[in-house]
UniProtKB/TrEMBL annotation:
Domain Major facilitator superfamily (MFS) profile: 63-469
Function: Uniporter that mediates the transport of extracellular choline and ethanolamine into cells, thereby playing a key role in phospholipid biosynthesis. Choline and ethanolamine are the precursors of phosphatidylcholine and phosphatidylethanolamine, respectively, the two most abundant phospholipids. Transport is not coupled with proton transport and is exclusively driven by the choline (or ethanolamine) gradient across the plasma membrane. Also acts as a heme b transporter that mediates heme efflux from the cytoplasm to the extracellular compartment.
Protein name from the UniProt record: Choline/ethanolamine transporter FLVCR1
GO CC annotation terms, alphabetical: mitochondrial membrane; plasma membrane
PROSITE patterns (alphabetical): MFS
Species in which this protein is naturally found: Crocodylus porosus (Saltwater crocodile)
Gene Ontology annotations of biological process type: blood vessel development; embryonic digit morphogenesis; embryonic skeletal system morphogenesis; erythrocyte maturation; head morphogenesis; heme biosynthetic process; heme export; mitochondrial transport
Keywords: Cell membrane, Erythrocyte maturation, Glycoprotein, Membrane, Phosphoprotein, Receptor, Transmembrane, Transmembrane helix, Transport
Pfam families per the UniProt record, alphabetical: MFS_1
Reactions listed under catalytic activity: heme b(in) = heme b(out); ethanolamine(in) = ethanolamine(out); choline(out) = choline(in)
Length: 508
């Protein structure tokens, strides 16, 4: 690599190149030297084989920003109905269950479509899925502009369904975007930022709609005008983001950003089977445990977000605007938690410990939120909601990154897609049951139902065996079946070796 590489790439790369370390043959457990067909021979062959250089691209930040903003716009469209449930009940003349359905359709659409979407991601690539997500999100937004009549509930449901399909292509991409474009010292932070876009969209969805569309029950024409401002504004922004995605988004950088990605590029494409990848994931016991525990935690968050307005209004009538602000507090605190967790993972690689601790703290936060909701002090609800959001929402990128580690070299999009499918299934069940319990009894009963399930999630998380395969590949530890030794956190010696390997041998 030298000046030719710079010219070929058009100056699109940082001056960082990592030369892959040579793997030395390892002694066998029986003390014999490695022979033909042994893991040691495979390791020696891997070290001797030519491997493309490793470098990170400057474009990665633009790709991450474009994806995060598209995810933001999609999440905003998810929550804009439920946070204005009383407004849309009055405008369309339907009951609250039909308004809740406008949020539930996101969860319902995800489950049957996730396998086709992840297959398309593997078969046609990252760029196409990003464009489909951004384009369908814009199309759904314009469809809502056609529903600005009290008799057009079905139109708004159909438009929201298009946005729900867009979500299928966007929700599972954070870990894929991070892995394909970012180096090992920044991949978890990049995943957290990608998830952050979705959280920020939810936060804006909690804050902005109650301000744009006050509940003017006595003036339907004014209500229609205000809803129109929100719908048309969303459509314009979503269209601009679709165009930006088309310009910025590329399939992948010219050079892999990590040893793990370099190894995957060396594999023959004809050796990959999507069906076998799914089978491998469901045979992976740690992943199955994570699949259930992630579904419980994230499904509980979806349920709380959907029913937050009802919970707040039950104890604090007429406080729709503050309900939105509490939701904003919950999500913004979670955004901070996500970034902190991402940075922590990049620094320590303590995936299981961090995931378990955050899960336990989420449970504690849920208990506190449940028993302080009816005290009569909104400021207390703001504080407890913020604490709950910090840990519960901060858990999302942890689950994505932990799944990638324990399932490598399976596709990041497939593992993340299955995690999200589990979250949608649990989210639907939790929202239906918690909504019924809240209506029939009280918010306390509904929240205690979630607390019990989150406790089950803690137990399942504690049972996960930490097998950090991708991390070990980046450290140069591997064998023929890509199954790394179980590592909960790298030793200081490993960290020092990794830092030495990451030093550039020559500027590009």
């Amino acid at each position: 690599m030298g000046a030719d590489a710079v010219e070929a790439e058009g100056g699109d790369w940082n001056c960082e190149e990592v030369t892959p370390p040579v793997q030395q043959p390892q002694p066998q457990p029986n003390g014999l030297a490695p022979g033909p067909g042994t893991p040691g021979e495979a390791q020696a062959m891997l070290g001797a084989a030519p491997r493309m250089p490793v470098a990170v691209s400057r474009r990665r930040l633009a790709v991450l920003a474009a994806f995060s903003l598209c995810s933001l716009a999609n999440a905003f469209q998810w929550i804009q109905y439920s946070i204005l449930s009383s407004v849309f009940v009055g405008f369309y003349g339907v009951d609250s269950a039909r308004v809740d359905a406008l949020s539930l359709v996101y969860m319902v659409a995800y489950v049957p479509l996730i396998l086709p979407a992840t297959w398309l991601l593997d078969a046609r690539g990252l760029r196409l899925c990003a464009l489909l997500g951004a384009g369908l999100n814009a199309l759904g937004a314009w469809g809502k502009c056609l529903s600005l009549r009290p008799s057009r509930y079905v139109v708004t449901l159909l438009a929201q369904s298009v946005c729900a399909v867009a979500q299928v292509f966007l929700l599972g991409l954070p870990s894929r975007v991070a892995s394909v474009w970012f180096g090992p010292r920044e991949v978890s932070t990049a995943c957290a930022v990608a998830v952050l876009g979705n959280q920020l969209g939810t936060a804006i969805g909690f804050l902005l709609p109650p301000v744009l569309v006050p509940n003017t029950v006595d003036d339907i024409d004014l209500m229609q005008h205000n809803i129109g401002i929100m719908f048309y504004g969303t459509a314009v922004v979503s269209t601009i983001l679709f165009l930006i995605t088309g310009v910025v988004f590329k399939e992948r950088p010219k050079y892999p950003p990590s040893q793990a990605q370099a190894f995957l590029r060396d594999q023959p494409p004809e050796g990959y089977s999507y069906k076998q990848s799914i089978i491998n994931l469901f045979r992976n016991v740690p992943f199955v445990l994570l699949l259930i525990s992630y579904g419980i935690m994230t499904g509980a968050f979806y349920s709380i977000s959907t029913l937050l307005n009802q919970m707040i209004i039950t104890h604090y009538p007429g406080e729709e605007v503050n309900a939105g602000r509490i939701g904003l507090t919950l999500v913004v605190a979670g955004m901070v938690g996500s970034i902190i967790c991402g940075l922590w993972l990049d620094y320590t690689k303590t995936y299981k410990q961090t995931t378990l601790i955050v899960y336990i703290l989420s449970f504690i936060g849920m208990i506190v939120f449940t028993f302080t909701l009816n005290l009569g002090y909104l400021v207390v609800v703001f504080v407890t909601g913020g604490v709950l959001g910090f840990f519960m929402t901060g858990y999302l990128p942890l689950g994505f990154e932990f799944a990638v580690e324990i399932t490598y070299p399976e596709s990041e999009g497939t593992s993340s897609g299955l995690l999200n499918a589990s979250a949608q299934i649990f989210g639907i069940l939790f929202t239906l049951v918690q909504g019924k319990l809240t209506s029939a009894y009280s918010p306390l009963t509904g929240n205690l139902f979630l607390c019990a399930w989150i406790f089950v999630g803690i137990i399942l998380t504690a049972l996960i065996k930490s097998d950090l395969r991708r991390h070990n590949i980046n450290l140069g530890i591997m064998n023929t079946d890509i199954k790394a030794v179980p590592v909960d956190s790298p030793t200081e010696h490993e960290r020092n070796n990794a830092m030495l390997r990451d030093q550039p041998e020559s500027a590009i």
